[in-house]
Amino acid sequence: MNKLLIVGTVAFDAIETPFGKTDKILGGAATYIGLSASFFKLQSAIVSVVGDDFPQEHLDLLKNKNIDISGIEVVKGGKTFFWSGRYHNDLNSRDTLETQLNVLADFNPIVPENFKDADVVMLGNLHPNIQIGVLDQMKQKPKLVVLDTMNFWMDCALEELKEVIKRVDVITINDEEARQLSGEYSLVKAAEVIQELGPKYVVIKKGEHGALLFHQNDVFFAPALPLKEVYDPTGAGDTFAGGFSGYITQSSNISFGNMKNAIIYGSNLASFCVEEFGTKRMQRLTREDVDARLQQFKMLTQFDIELSK
Length: 309
What we know:
This protein is an alpha/beta fold. 36% of the residues lie in helices and 24% in strands.
């Protein structure tokens, strides 16, 4: 089976939305990516760091999803990365209440030896220097490197971020971040500018309004599935990235046409993530659930039309 290497945070989150709030629960970019990618036929591993306050049951959860956790460092006496946030009524904007880097502050990633030849590398949201450190450990250039980042790194580590961007094939960011990185308001122009920085493919996520895929002069749009209930958007972007990279890894087909399918798979899995707080929905998600909703996506987007002659 093909190999997917996932780099990102394994963390604690405390979340408040108009529909409720949680105490510390399982979170982190790599956690969501790993759970999402576990629905594909592949070998996956997570590179991350936690403190010894991180429950063994959470590590067992990842292991039981056939995720290699040998690259997750457990720091004795250390505390796990913690993020707390409150979402506004529209669920599209949020306030960060607290961020504790803890063991993440001194994280030096170590890629497991048997994943240094991974087919696909998914660089979850982390400091660009950590992402570069992972790429430098690969024995050979992966078939595809996917980068997820955010405006925080554009504000405080832009030059380092640009160094990572030069080395990736796909970048996934939201519309606000695309505008900030490119300096362009039009997302079409923004994608052109970002492609000039290095990536061949640009994925711009628009939350409840879907996602756009750009490659040279080609553009593809995938809608988000309209949902009756949305409780917590935390991790939706990471779940999308896990579905996208997982599908590409499984299919071993790196083309614009196949990436359209990957966008749909990513959107499909992200639609489950938001239905409950944290990773709860992803933990009990079944293959039957995924397939049934894929059919809904197909019905949402498929139509016949006759063009006038």
